[in-house]
Amino acid sequence: MSKQLLQGNQAIALAAEVAGMAFFSGYPITPASEIINDLVNRKQIKVLQMEDEISSIATVIGASLAGLKAMTATSGPGFSLMQENIGLAHMMEVPLVIVNVQRVGPSTGMPTLPAQGDIIQCIHGSHGDYFPIVFYPNSVAELYTHTITAFNAAEESLSPVILLSDAFISHLYETITPQSDFPIKNRERPPLGSGSRHFTGLSHDNSLPKTSDADNYRKLITRLREKQLITAQQYNYYEYRECRNETDTLLISYGALSRIAYYFKNEFSLFRPILMFPILGDLKRIALQYKKIIVMEMNTGQYAGEIERILHREVTLLPVLGGRISLEEIKNALSGVVTK
Amino acid sequence: MSDSTIKSIRDIPSHENIYPGTPACAGCGGLLSLRHCLKALGENIVIVNAAGCFTLLSVYPYTPFRSSWLYTAMACAPAGAQGIRDALDVLIKKGKLLPEEDLKVVVLTGDGVAYDIGLASTSGALYRNVDFYYICSDNEAYGNTGFQASGATPFASKTGTTPVGEMNPLGELFYKKDLFEIWRSHKPPYLATISPSHPVDLINKFEKAKHYKGPKLFINLSPCPPGWNTDPSHSAKLAKLAVDTGIWVLKEAVYGEIRHTVIPRKFKPVEVYLKEQGRFAHLFKPVRQEDALCQIQSFVDRYWKEIQN
Question: What is the CATH number of domain A4-185+211-234?
Fold first, then answer.
């Protein structure tokens, strides 16, 4: 394909088609609406506009079980409504992709401004234990690439995969050269309808519900977790830039905010996860080389808390709130935490 | 009951309950009617809103309203109204609020909420006979997010999610949900459709509704210049054309009994209404889509024929 000037949300739509998505269902919401607006013009894709986000993800689950690659796209308030069905999709092992273009919350918040407030909701939004794979690109080109990654990871893990974006990168226009020669993973499991199949939200063994068998439940959860780890290891994307100058500090950031982190590449080493969850061993290994870790994020410490938990050490938090990404402010804040 | 009925626009109260200078689009048909609705409802109200164009009206302290305002999640404005109504009742019962200080609880939403995401909550409030008003500003799409189709979008309308092109020369393929009938099946005490082109009819309907305790619902056809792609100065004229062609039916239902409040003496052809709007332009250019136009006309004709029988 030739060079194209694309908006982040358009890149997601284009990539979904390249990945083989045949079904999309969604509900209008700022700042994700451009995805459905774009997809309705693509002939190969069945696009449904539903009456709310609960129905949107429910139809995606149905379409996926029936054999189509399927996706939905939303923002924070819609993502909240989808949570019960996300848990269901994990329990029934349904491959699908959920795009969450984050805006400032909670509630209506600041609908047109970027935030990163849904990080914990990605992994703990539904009740019970489940183990989602989550990606968060930081450019239009990466939104394109990792929409395809998300589909591949979903098909491989047979689970809902979350592609995070934010109002900034989704509304950003950049020139990209969309590749179409990616390896595309297709599902091995036969669709509903081939033989008698039973998908249930109950704890189960194969199709058989086991609602009071603790051993079976433990086995099920262990299997789901292992499956996620095995898949995630194949898509362990991150960006690590070692500082040319001597530094004892690692600056971790992701999504829109990581674009401004490049400005500090001569002062700190930079780490940017693209695979947000599960957090894999590479970060542990890299972190060992640094005395100080700063996590800069557009929330009050959601990813920082997870990193502390994984690394078993304290990190310094630099929250950037309210949708304003100002180099001057971040410079001052960074010099503040460094001199501490 | 007819003591407060008005006969002419000169009888409409001059007192304004919505101040000028709102962030609504020029020529917003919803705002034209809302102004009259609030004149009829008076000052002692609390508005319960769920996400829609009118959410933009009230960004405190830059609010055009004289009344209070509560925002709820998109799916549950009527449930928010129930909470307020019940709390006010409890306070009155305990003597902590004087009955004359009581507030009217008014849900104000667009068609996306009223026809789609909020329907379950509305049905629940109707079932529980909550004493509230519901004003739905129906511009026949999700105006606030870029004019995507909703359950209220009429057949053959172009929207953000029903684009017109090679694949689909018509735009929206489904017919508009009949929200009036959905509500009427719950037998609420009062239910009406209103139009910015008929303010006298509108005021009289609110006056009548005041006499009933329970859900009182109003659906307003709201010409939407940016979404319908029309001249903002034509909104009232368009709303009138919708009534004159029989597309927008002005009626009311008391405990389910329907009465048509405005019946045009001679119906204009639907084309006159459709032709004015960019969202229907593909029905006329580059090729006239006779089938679709006939379908819309016969849909309207059928309704009025059934009424006469």
Answer: 3.40.50.970
CB contact under 8 A, B161 and A43: no
Two tokens at B72? 């709820």
Q: For chain A, say whether B129 makes contact (Cβ under 8 Å).
A: no
Model confidence, pTM: 0.90
Could you tell me which of A7, A99, A1 has the C-alpha nearest to residue A56? A99
Q: Do A107 and B73 touch (CB under 8 A)?
A: yes
Is residue A40 less than 8 Å (CB to CB) from chain B?
yes
CATH number for the region B9-308 comes to: 3.40.50.970
Each domain of chain B, given as residue ranges in start order, spans 9-308
Residue of A nearest to B146 (CA): A33
Rounded Cα–Cα distance for residues A46 and A83 (Å): 23
Q: Is the pLDDT of residue B229 over 60?
A: yes
Q: What are the pLDDT digits (tens) for B146-185?
A: 999 999 999 999 999 999 998 899 999 999 999 999 999 9
If you classify domain A239-339 with CATH, what class do you get?
alpha beta
- Better pLDDT: A193 or B262: B262
Confidence at residue B3, expressed as pLDDT on a 0 to 100 scale: 61
- Considering only CA atoms, which of A35, A126, A22 is closest in space to residue A75? A35
**Measured between alpha carbons, how far apart are the two ends of chain B, in Å?**
29
**Yes or no, beta carbons of B148 and A81 under 8 Å apart:** no
Average pLDDT, chain B: 95
- Measured CA to CA, the distance from residue A71 to residue A161 in angstroms comes to 10
| Domains A4-185+211-234 and A239-339 fall in the same CATH topology | yes
Widest distance between CA atoms in chain B? 68
Q: Do A28 and B112 touch (CB under 8 A)?
A: yes
Contact in structure between A143 and A11 (CB atoms under 8 Å): yes
- ipTM reported for the complex surpasses 0.85: no
Task: Spell out the long-range contacts of B53-60 with Cβ–Cβ below 8 A and sequence spacing 24 or more.
Answer: B53/B24, B53/B25, B53/B28, B53/B110, B53/B137, B53/B139, B53/B143, B53/B144, B54/B24, B54/B30, B54/B108, B54/B109, B54/B110, B54/B137, B55/A108, B55/B144, B56/B23, B56/B24, B56/B144, B57/B22, B57/B23, B57/B24, B57/B31, B59/B23
Interface list for B 265-304 with A (CB within 8 A) = none
Q: For position B1, what pLDDT does the model report?
A: 46
- In this structure, the number of other CB atoms found within 10 A of the CB of residue B101 comes to 10
